[in-house]
């Protein structure tokens, strides 16, 4: 596989398949810390289709990040069931779950999480090298990914030599370099001004349309959520609304 070398769909976001990819049933998460018990998720039911871009919104502390983390297997759930392509991630061993994540998922966080001493291209190819890919192949895939996010000319720059928007585009390239089936993004535009944020969303919407990946993103920004196919609202550990977004979502809207 090579990212960026596959056929584009006819229109941005025109690639949702009528098939559930992520299925959460009765998901609960309880944190216990220092004698305190916080019920962060109180029985969430949710289905996400292949190729869908879903935004999760809601007030601070309502459980958005927790939901992302238990759906992706970054964190363990306390009760309920999460299935991805029919496989229950709660039933996997730690080793299997880590591999499942490395092979099938990409992550984008607000705080870029780039390694400062590595160049853009080295940051992107690192997960491939860790996964045991040959250096030549890792470099080729990383260059493709960098091209896909429009940063081919920045390959040798270190994070500190790039703008926030450019750094976030590097993390987008890194999250996509292994052609994951699902990309999880926690506040991907949270640290960016509105213009740069729009540029990142143009990129994610385009990739979602072209690459047919499923995107689940947490955001506080209604303009960001409007670019998704669907918006889920949370409150106090529950989903309180789950609606398709009506308006067009292509670039430049
Ligand atoms: N590791 C943890 N230990 C204990 N409590 C936690 C932990 N992580 C989150 N919580 C609590 O769980 C609840 C949900 O937190 P979460 O981070 O999922 O909310 P959020 O909606 O993503 O918030 P924000 O928008 O501020 O990022 C909050 O009450 C939070 O304090």
Question: In a few lines, what is going on in this structure?
Answer:
InterPro entries: AAA+_ATPase, ABC_transporter-like_ATP-bd, ABC_transporter-like_CS, ABC_transpr_LolD-like, MacB-like_ATP-bd, P-loop_NTPase. The chain is an alpha/beta fold and 253 residues long. 31% of the residues lie in helices and 27% in strands.
Structure description:
It contains seven helices and ten strands. With 253 residues, the chain is an alpha/beta fold. It has a domain at 50-73 and 93-244: P-loop containing nucleotide triphosphate hydrolases (Rossmann fold). The strands form two sheets. Strands 6-7-8-3-9-10 form a six-stranded mixed sheet, with helices on both faces. A four-stranded antiparallel sheet has the order 2-1-4-5, with helices on one face. Helix 3 (120-130) crosses helix 4, helix 3 (120-130) runs parallel beside helix 5 (164-176) and helix 4 (135-148) packs across helix 5 (164-176). The longest helix has 18 residues, at 194-211. The chain is globular. The protein starts with 19 loop residues before the first strand and ends in a 9-residue tail after the last strand. The structure holds adenosine-5'-triphosphate (ATP). Adenosine-5'-triphosphate binds next to strand 1, strand 2 and helix 1.
Give the key terms.
globular; 253 residues; nucleotide-binding; disordered N terminus; 6-stranded mixed beta sheet; binds adenosine-5'-triphosphate; 7 helices; P-loop_NTPase; ATP hydrolysis activity; alpha/beta; Rossmann fold
